[in-house]
Amino acid sequence: VVSTGTEILQGLYADTNAQFIAEQLTSLGIQVVGIYAAPDDRAVLESTFRHVASTCNLVICSGGLGPTEDDINRDVFAAIWKTELHRDERALEMMRTRFLTRARGPMPESNEVQALVPTESTVLYNQWGTAPGFYLPARDGMPALVALPGPPKEMRPMFLESAKPLLENLAGGETISITRTVHTYGQPESYVNECCRNLFRADPRVALTILAKTYGVDLRIHASGPSNAAAQQLVRQYEEDIRSRLSPDEVYGADEQMLHDAVAELLIANRLTVAAAESCTGGLVSKLLTDVPGSSAYIKQGYVVYANEAKISVLGVCAETIDQHGAVSEQTAAEMAAGVRELAGSDFGIGVTGIAGPTGGTPDKPVGLTYIAIADKHRTRVQRSQFLGDREMNRIWAAQTALYLLRRRLLRWNASAAESE
Ligand code: ATP
Ligand code: MG
Predict the structure, then answer these.
(1) Which of 114, 222, 226, 245 lies 20 to 30 Å (CA to CA) from residue 414?
(2) CA nearest 2: which of 164, 147, 120, 176?
(3) Per residue in 126-138, pLDDT tens?
(4) Of 327, 366, 373, which Cα lies nearest the Cα of 352?
(5) Which atom of ligand 1 is nearest to the CA of 18?
(6) How far lies 128's CA from each of 26, 94, 148, 195, in Å?
(7) Which atom of ligand 1 is nearest to the CA of 7?
(8) Can you tell me which atom of ligand 1 is nearest the CA of 148?
(9) Which residues contact 316 (CB under 8 A, 6 or more apart)?
């Protein structure tokens, strides 16, 4: 993958084209062996393409197809791939029409160079801008080349609509790759790593990677097979294996399903409702719970209660509790959760109180200390957590932990409901 443009090397914009292309190629089962950025400089471009050509059998290049002096890629391609350029009449016509319909009048002559493409190439027409791209098949020891314009608004749709089908054919019959990301919460990366230790290199067709994210630890399964079904089967097998090594409390979802989605699903399935009273998370728990469309089915209300008076007057926390144990304490969290549940008439109440930092910590109650309570009609349980992040991270972890604890309670809900009858 080669991105061209002097501005990339000057740090003026991030090379998002390479990221997009690499992700797409990976999903096609095409292994990306290098990502390069080169300035609009003939000598550097030539040496970059010469080098790249010796390392792979497919090059995808973006940028440098404009009409200006610095857009020299098409000449460089012609020189390195030893091909002639010719004018593509349809591309020229599309460009002229685009100029006219966009009320810019007739197209300046300088734009005509953009219709120049290698003679042996398939033209990738551009409905989103002016410059066409092209696909030049592998030849004379040179890799295949896909050239696309630089602006992401043109490059992305052109890649998806024109380049991808050609590449699918190239890759087709060999391997299909599928990726699935399994999400966990509640255990550190080292623990998850330990549980899955002998899975990481168990099968050459599967690449398993572990990623610590802000919202939890992910396991990414990337499986390749001769067909979609074969790759799917491998992914399923790995996912089952991973789930059997961790507890259902810890594995809450996969791919786009986040913790709050999993919680919402369980609440809806069991026709249960929740309300939240938050101190250190400033409403983040409610925000996450309401990220899901249709959330009014299960969230009744949410309170952001920072002042002690508010905890007392709004939620009914006892003044003595705060006096005796402090606002950040197991007892206060418990009374917040039970209080908000009463107030809302919901099945569950969530209470969060903690010290997000960076100030406000004491030797007894350091920054990151957080109590999270979940109340239902039978009981109120409180978990004490000591988060070690900055303010932002402590708040995210506190909110995620609240959802994790609620989900854990929900997973046991049917059993405990039966038991109490
Ligand atoms: P144009 O006809 O607009 O000149 P071009 O094919 O010559 O198109 P460039 O001049 O290289 O493309 O880039 C045009 C603009 O597209 C850049 O200013 C930048 O905003 C965006 N762009 C180019 N390459 C990338 C990239 N690799 N990642 C993200 N944005 C890019
Ligand atoms: Mg340009």
Answers:
(1) 245
(2) 147
(3) 999 999 999 999 9
(4) 373
(5) 27
(6) 25, 11, 12, 48
(7) 18
(8) 6
(9) 335, 339, 342, 343
What are 175's two structure tokens? 């391997």
| Degrees to nearest 5, angle at CA 353 with 352 and 358 | 125
* Shortest-distance ligand to the CA of residue 149: 1
Ligand nearest to the CA of 19: 1
Identify the DSSP state of 82: T
| Lowest-pLDDT choice from 106-110, 150-154, 270-274, 352-356 | 106-110
Q: Which ligand is nearest to the CA of 4?
A: 1
User: What Rg do the C-alpha atoms of the chain give, in angstroms?
Assistant: 29
- Burial of 69 from C-beta contacts in 10 A (0-12 / 13-18 / 19+): exposed
Q: Which residues line ligand 1 (CB under 6 A)?
A: 3-5, 7-8, 13, 15-18, 62-66, 71, 131, 149-152
Backbone angles phi, psi at 131, to 5 degrees: -70, 125
For residue 176, which of 140, 243, 229 has the smallest C-alpha distance? 229
For ion ligand 2, residues whose CB falls within 5 Å: 66, 71
Choose the residue to mutate in 155, 156, 158, 159 for probing ligand 1, maximizing ligand atoms within 8 Å of C-beta. 155
pTM for the complete prediction? Answer: 0.69
How far away, in angstroms, is 127 Cα from ligand 1 center?
A: 16
**Residues 6 or more apart in contact with residue 392 via CB below 8 angstroms:** none
Query: Per the structure block, which two tokens stand in for 117?
Result: 């493409």
Query: Can you tell me whether residue 202 is helix, strand or coil?
Result: coil
User: Which one of the ligands is nearest to 69 CA?
Assistant: 2
- Tokens representing 124 are 């990738």
Residues 141-157 as b/e (b if ≥16 CB within 10 A, e otherwise) read ebbbbbbbbbbeebbbe
d(CA 365, CA 344): 30
111 Cα–ligand 1 center, Å: 16
CB 189 within 8 A of CB 217: yes
Q: What is the pLDDT of residues 83-95, one digit of tens each?
A: 999 999 999 999 9
Ligand 1 atom 2, closest CA: 66
How much distance in Å is there from the Cα of 100 to the middle of ligand 1? 23
